[in-house]
């Protein structure tokens, strides 16, 4: 070992190293726990990482939602909150930022993403209609169903295969979509629900060529196209990196071009937009805007705050401008990729290519001896917590829930455990610790047993379900 030269990250990847475009001004201590404490915490939480207390978590990769670090400028913005009931100046800053970077005409603020999903689903969907989309997301689909719609997955087949290396696994399969349109009639499709990037597929992007073709297809049948823009900035990074003709365009330009093919968007600002709470809806049609603005006052708050404080809207307006900085986006996605490259080099099965916000470990390949009905991805999240206090989440059969018609478990092709990386929070050393812990539970995989569900709530069951170990 003595004469072996260590190599920097850049050297390992054959390039010059680069680092995050920020330095740390304030730190939040985190606590390590003993194996005994973790056993007790996990049993108390019913083997569900959503039910752990965060004070008992060491490195928290449960979600990249609302867990990012705000900048000094955003914190300064917090002090500029105009807490008027109506017409807060911070709302106008938010409106201006969304218009400038996403390009839509009319903006409706909401408390977070699902508030926006609720409004758009209720306004656009009539009972009995079909909503096609590029793979389901839990809250998005639930709101579409509660409004009386049926979600239909029209993502390309490659997305359901964790080892397929398609560069744009989030793409819509236009043939699948057209078959659906012909089967149910365009008048029974209120809109196409397009997400960039696709969370449940592993943070996979949609190409510009795909959205352009999708727009043309929607125009042919007169069907609106609405975008879940939650992680659309990260999607823009993949277009810049992988799609012909975009290498020299900025993230901001790519984002705006992509949104330009759509009629509107909803947003969980807790991700790309770098805030701890907030959301918005944006559309170009003034009648639709009127309907949404009329609905927001019932469920969220006035149309100039939508459930956010003035200070939240100011931090959000600033977050939107910081989010499109090219160096920021690159360092964010490359950090996720660094963790992925360690795991891949150790032959641990993860979704490839690595997506924008998280590493998704393939629990079917990790635990081939555990049947899907015994919740292998849930068991993996539990094992990881026991090993090191690192918290991830299940994205498989528990998350998929039950079919509302038959009441049976849905059996998704992807059975994954997600390690989501908060933005601007953890260092490369944290990623090393995470990788080693995943390796430790991989090495011990043959001893791991499945779980049984002993409590199951009706909606979004994964948040509060409880499990026991199968002996
Ligand atoms: C997450 F386990 N995502 O990924 P809200 N669209 C998309 C999201 O990723 C999203 C929302 C809409 C979360 C939080 C979360 O099953 C779960 O602001 C693409 O969270 O209301 C949220 O935005 C909803 C975790 C949500 C889950 C649902 O961690």
What does this structure look like?
There is one protein chain. This protein has 471 residues and is α/β, with parallel strands linked by helices. Helix content is 40%, strand content 11%. The strands form 4 sheets. Strands 1-7-6-5-4 form a 5-stranded mixed β-sheet, with helices on both faces. Strand 2, helix 6 and strand 3 form a beta-alpha-beta unit. Helix 5 packs across helix 11 and helix 15 crosses helix 17. The protein binds ligand P61. The site of ligand P61 has 19 residues, from helix 5 and helix 6.
What descriptors fit this protein?
single chain; 471 residues; alpha/beta; five-stranded mixed β-sheet; 11% strand; binds ligand P61
Structure, briefly:
The protein contains 17 helices and twelve strands. The chain is of the alpha/beta class and 471 residues long. The structure holds ligand P61.
């Amino acid at each position: 070992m003595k004469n072996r030269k260590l190599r920097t990250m850049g050297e390992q990847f054959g390039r010059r190293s680069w680092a995050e475009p920020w330095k740390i001004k304030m730190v939040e201590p985190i606590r390590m726990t003993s194996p005994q404490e973790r056993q007790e915490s996990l049993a108390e939480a019913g083997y569900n990482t959503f039910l752990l207390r965060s004070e008992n978590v060491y490195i928290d990769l449960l979600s990249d939602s609302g867990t990012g670090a705000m900048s000094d400028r955003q914190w300064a913005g917090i002090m500029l909150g105009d807490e008027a009931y109506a017409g807060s100046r911070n709302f106008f800053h938010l409106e201006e930022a969304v218009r400038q970077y996403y390009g839509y005409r009319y903006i409706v603020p909401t408390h977070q993403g699902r508030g926006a999903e609720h409004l758009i689903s209720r306004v656009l969907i009539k009972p009995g209609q079909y909503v096609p989309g590029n793979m389901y997301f839990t809250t998005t689909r639930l709101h579409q169903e509660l409004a009386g719609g049926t979600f239909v997955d029209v993502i390309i087949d490659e997305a359901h295969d964790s080892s397929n290396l398609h560069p744009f696994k989030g793409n819509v399969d236009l043939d699948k979509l057209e078959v659906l349109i012909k089967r149910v009639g365009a008048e029974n499709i209120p809109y196409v629900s397009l997400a960039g990037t696709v969370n449940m597929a592993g943070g996979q992007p949609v190409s510009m060529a795909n959205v352009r073709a999708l727009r043309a297809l929607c125009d042919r049948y007169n069907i609106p196209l609405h975008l879940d823009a939650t992680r659309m900035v990260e999607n823009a990074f993949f277009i810049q990196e992988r799609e012909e003709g975009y290498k020299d365009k900025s993230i901001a330009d790519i984002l705006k071009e992509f949104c330009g093919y759509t009629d509107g968007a909803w947003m969980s600002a807790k991700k790309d937009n770098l805030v701890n709470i907030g959301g918005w809806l944006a559309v170009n049609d003034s009648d639709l805007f009127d309907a949404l603005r009329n609905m927001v006052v019932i469920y969220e708050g006035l149309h100039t705050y939508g459930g956010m404080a003035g200070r939240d809207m100011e931090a959000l307006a600033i977050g939107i401008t910081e989010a499109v900085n090219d160096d920021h986006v690159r360092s964010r996605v490359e950090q996720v990729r660094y963790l992925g490259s360690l795991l891949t080099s150790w032959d641990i099965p993860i979704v490839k290519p690595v997506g924008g916000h998280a590493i998704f470990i393939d629990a079917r390949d990790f635990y081939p001896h555990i049947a899907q009905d015994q919740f292998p991805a849930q068991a993996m999240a539990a094992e990881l917590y026991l090993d090191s206090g690192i918290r991830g989440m299940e994205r498989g059969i528990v998350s998929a829930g039950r079919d509302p018609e038959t009441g049976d478990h849905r059996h998704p092709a992807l059975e994954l455990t997600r390690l989501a990386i908060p933005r601007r929070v953890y260092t490369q050393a944290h990623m090393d610790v995470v990788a080693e812990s995943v390796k430790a539970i991989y090495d011990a995989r043959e001893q791991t047993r499945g779980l049984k569900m002993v409590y199951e709530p009706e909606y979004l069951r994964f948040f509060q379900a409880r499990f026991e170990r199968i002996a």
